[in-house]
Amino acid sequence: MEEYISDNSLYIRSKNNSMINRKMIGRVLGMLLFIELGMFLLCAGVSAGYGESDYKYFLYTCIINAVVGGLLLLYGRGAENKMSRRDGYCVVTLSWVVFYLFRHASFLF
Predict the structure, then answer these.
(1) Nearest-angstrom CA–CA distance, 47 and 40
(2) What letter would DSSP give residue 17?
(3) 1 located within any domain
(4) Which DSSP category does 58 fall into?
(5) Prediction pTM value
(6) DSSP of 34-100
(7) How far is CA 86 from CA 39, 44, 50, 82, 102, in A?
(8) In terms of CB atoms within 10 Å, which of 17, 20, 56, 57 comes out highest?
(9) Which residue range is the domain that position 39 belongs to?
(10) Do 69 and 33 meet the contact criterion of CB atoms below 8 Å apart?
(11) 15 in a domain, yes or no?
(12) Would residue 83 be called left, alpha or beta, if left means φ above 0 and alpha means ψ between -120 and 50 degrees?
């Protein structure tokens, strides 16, 4: 019976031995946010070109994307260039969530 009792020493993981490469995910999401920033700048330019007042909301979203994307790129500095399948799933899921939130963040202002 004693061999079935464990002391959790096998289950303690250090931050460096994680199953998910958080720095790589942060770096990829930061780059994706900067790509989205460029698309919103294009939308703001078209909106301003047509004389609409919606360009300011695109610019607000651009500022949010720049700040969060910059912070994620700083966090992801020095990450390994290896991405596992699990990391890819996390990037896809988090990019959908983050892009959805930032796309609708302009309506907060």
Answers:
(1) 10
(2) G
(3) no
(4) H
(5) 0.71
(6) HHHHHHHHHHHHHHHHTT-STHHHHHHHHHHHHHHHHHHHHHTTT--S---HHHHHHHHHHHHHHHH
(7) 28, 35, 44, 11, 24
(8) 57
(9) 21-108
(10) yes
(11) no
(12) beta
pLDDT tens, residue by residue, 9-58: 444 445 556 678 888 889 999 999 999 999 999 999 999 999 999 899 89
Report residue 9 as tokens. Answer: 């020493």
Considering the domain boundaries, does residue 46 fall inside one? Answer: yes
Copy the structure tokens of residue 106: 């302009």
Nearby residues of 89 by Cβ (< 8 Å), 6 or more positions away:
none
Whether the Cβ atoms of residue 77 and residue 22 lie closer than 8 Å to each other? no
| The token pair that represents 87 in the structure block | 């990391």
And the tokens for 52?
């609409």
Q: What angle do CA 64, 54, 70 make, to 5 degrees?
A: 15
Count of domains for the chain: 1
